[in-house]
Write a structure and sequence with these properties.
The strands form 6 sheets. Strands 1-2-3 form a 3-stranded antiparallel β-sheet. A 3-stranded antiparallel β-sheet has the order 4-11-9. A 3-stranded mixed β-sheet has the order 13-14-15, with no helix packed on it. With about 350 residues, the protein is of the alpha+beta class. Helix content is about 35%, strand content about 20%.
């Protein structure tokens, strides 16, 4: 017994569902005043864009105007739709959650993908539908459509969350499904469908290990510590508006902070209100702590460029160089004390979430 869905229109598009047995007898199930998720099957075998038709019908178009009279509608070939979901078939199709690390879709002639939440980096939560993508395959015969779907499932690569792909492949290769003689309780009656052959994740695990070593360094004893590069730092030459080289041997003595130190908070607030330009806070140092580069920028590296920075940003309102990521960078990657870094910044008069030196 198979399921049949027909699209009907009563002022709009809807779906009528029936079961059809081996003697082509129809058994009514339900009617929904909307397009069902399986509409891709109808679209593939009729060539009709049902979604577009639904919108046009809702706008007042008639079936005749859309060319959807019964004498012009015909079917060709077969189509199969598989919903790729983040469900673990071995655990009663329990939804899985997590982050998709790798996502690669299938493709090719007669393969249609209707995307959902499937992409690398997507966070799958328990609060939404578990479907990642609908894969619909069309062929001139049932066997061609089945083989095309099986090949598409094999081409999918989804890592980071469990999916039902292995179960779908098991279903497509079962002799009952191949023969087209399924019944309504076929899945419940066929426990061997759940003897799943899941794919390995060797390549992704290797890449994750290499990435961890490249970013975090080796965890093997004797291979951790300060970076081995000890070369001299090449300092840039800063020049004023006249092209004259600026003496950067000492911190810049111009800036908003000097008003605060010399004249107090009231004068500082007054100067702020009287300023007609845009006051800019530079967050390069702070934001850099959240980048891969920052995991190799030591406190000494920042101190060495502090004086240059004070001159380069002489007209800036403030320089932000501290945040929560500083602790992670200092302790996890650089093996430094974050509080020592904070004291060092204060020592060279670099402002912490404050005003420009």
């Amino acid at each position: 017994m198979s399921k049949l869905r027909l699209t009907c229109t009563i002022g709009n598009a809807g779906t009528a569902e029936f079961l059809v047995d081996q003697q082509n007898r129809y058994y009514f199930i339900e009617i929904n005043p909307r397009i069902q998720v399986e509409h891709t099957i109808t679209e593939e075998i009729t060539g009709i864009d049902i979604v577009a038709a639904q919108i046009q019908i809702a706008a007042g178009a008639s079936l005749e105007q859309l060319g959807l009279t019964q004498d012009r509608i015909s079917t060709r070939g077969f189509a199969i739709q598989c919903r790729i979901t983040t469900e673990d078939a071995a655990k009663g199709f329990q939804p899985d959650t997590g982050k998709i690390e790798v996502y690669r879709s299938a493709g090719g002639n007669g393969v249609r993908l209707d995307g959902g939440n499937g992409f690398a980096g997507a966070i799958i939560t328990p609060h939404y539908d578990s479907m990642l993508v609908k894969c619909t395959c069309h062929g001139s015969t049932y066997e061609i459509a089945r083989r095309k779907m099986l090949r598409s499932l094999i081409e999918f690569r989804i890592r980071g969350v469990k999916t039902n792909i292995a179960f779908l492949a098991s279903l497509l290769t079962h002799q009952v499904f191949i023969s087209g003689n399924c019944w309504t309780t076929f899945i419940d009656d066929t426990p061997e469908l759940f003897a799943l052959m899941t794919s390995q994740n060797r390549a992704q695990k290797l890449l994750a290990y290499l990435g961890d070593v490249a970013v975090n360094g080796s965890s093997i004893k004797g291979q951790v510590g300060e970076p081995k590069f000890k070369g001299e730092i090449i300092m840039p030459v800063l020049r004023d508006a006249n092209g004259k080289a600026i003496d950067v041997s000492s911190p810049c003595q111009k800036g908003w902070r000097n008003i605060l130190l010399r004249e107090g908070p009231t004068a500082f607030a007054k100067a702020i209100r009287q300023n007609k330009g845009t006051l800019i806070m530079d967050t390069t140092w702070r934001d850099a702590h959240q980048s891969l580069l920052a995991t190799r920028v030591r406190t000494i590296d920042l101190i060495n460029i502090a004086k240059h920075t004070s001159h380069a940003y002489a007209n800036a309102y403030s320089l932000e160089c501290w945040g929560g990521a500083t602790f992670d960078v200092a302790m996890r990657f650089l093996y430094e004390d974050p509080w020592d870094r904070l004291v060092s910044f204060a020592t060279v008069h670099v402002c912490i979430r404050g005003f420009k030196c």
